[in-house]
């Protein structure tokens, strides 16, 4: 009789929350064994999401902001009243992502990517979700951001125009080890599943550890990230989308887009859950 067994090596059991720790799924069926190497964070996400769907089928879901019962399943799980108070990034520029009441970034026309989707402004509830997702491993908050971004992508594209692949912004191994996960990869994983698009989580890498961006002006951010990324493969005319949690000066997206275009991509789009209003 078949059975499923999850095993974590003993020495890693004490650090299983550090990323990238890998769990082993061993499937034994009639004497045959198959043990794929699966990223434990993504495995946890999949199990958590399945459990959430099971519980949602039995009990009504709660609004993520006010805690009210939701009479219908909504994505994101926010009631109608709270939706009207969320910091939606309406009428944003399709290139730099800044809202119309602020105006486009000075270098908007020179940005190397073509299309930007940023459904939320980085303020209020959206900013709290990003902080929880980035620094505290908040999977519920990541799901909320992914739901907002997936809906915005669906509304902005015809299916034939969707990028052929999505790529999360890579972290340096030092920062990923400290945080325990890559929040952009967690976000991209949920969006890829929702939109049924392939995700290439290892197509890009950080070539060096860079200081954090907050506190730097736009020119300092560009210098900080210059030559900080490299591709692990070549592309042949594909259109791809970069996925991240927040866009501030567009320095990260610009540097990644330049690297991808040099590696053979035909075009690069940028999907960020939130847009900070400073450029």
Briefly characterize the structure:
The chain is 34% helix and 19% strand.
Could you characterize what this model shows?
There is one protein chain. The chain has 279 residues and is of the alpha/beta class. The chain has eight helices and eleven strands. It has helices at residues 40-58, 80-85, 124-135, 139-156, 173-179, 183-195, 218-225, 251-262; strands at 3-7, 22-29, 32-34, 37-39, 115-117, 120-121, 165-168, 204-206, 229-231, 239-247, 267-275. The strands form three sheets. Strands 5, 6, 7, 10 and 11 form a five-stranded parallel sheet that branches. Strands 1, 2, 3 and 4 form a four-stranded antiparallel sheet that branches. α4 (139-156) packs across α6 (183-195). The N and C termini lie far apart (60 Å). The relative contact order is 0.14. Residues 1-38 have low confidence and may be disordered.
């Amino acid at each position: 009789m078949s059975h499923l067994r999850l095993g974590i090596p003993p020495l890693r059991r004490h650090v299983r929350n550090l990323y990238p720790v890998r769990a082993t799924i061993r499937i034994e069926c009639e004497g045959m064994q198959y043990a794929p190497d699966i990223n434990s964070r993504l495995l946890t996400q999949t199990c958590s999401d399945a459990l959430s769907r099971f519980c949602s089928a039995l009990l009504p879901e709660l609004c993520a902001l006010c805690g009210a019962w939701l009479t219908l399943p909504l994505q994101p799980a926010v009631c109608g009243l709270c939706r009207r108070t969320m910091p939606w990034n309406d009428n944003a520029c399709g290139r730099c992502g800044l809202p119309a009441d602020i105006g486009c970034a000075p270098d908007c026309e020179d940005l190397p990517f073509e299309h930007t989707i940023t459904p939320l402004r980085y303020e209020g509830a959206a900013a709290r979700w990003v902080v929880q997702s980035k620094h505290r491993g908040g999977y519920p908050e990541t799901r909320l951001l992914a739901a907002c971004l997936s809906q915005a992508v669906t509304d902005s594209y015809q299916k034939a125009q969707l990028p052929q692949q999505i790529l999360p912004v890579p972290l340096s191994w030092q920062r990923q080890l400290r945080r325990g996960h890559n929040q952009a990869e967690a976000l991209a994983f949920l969006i890829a599943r929702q939109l049924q698009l392939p995700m290439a989580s290892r197509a890009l890498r950080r070539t060096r550890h860079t200081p954090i961006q907050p506190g730097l002006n736009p020119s300092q951010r560009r210098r900080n990230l210059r030559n900080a990324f490299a591709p692990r493969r070549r592309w042949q005319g594909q259109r791809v989308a970069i996925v991240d949690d927040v866009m501030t000066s567009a320095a990260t997206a610009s540097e990644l887009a330049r690297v991808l275009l040099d590696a053979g991509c035909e075009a690069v789009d940028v999907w960020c859950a939130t847009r900070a209003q400073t450029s």
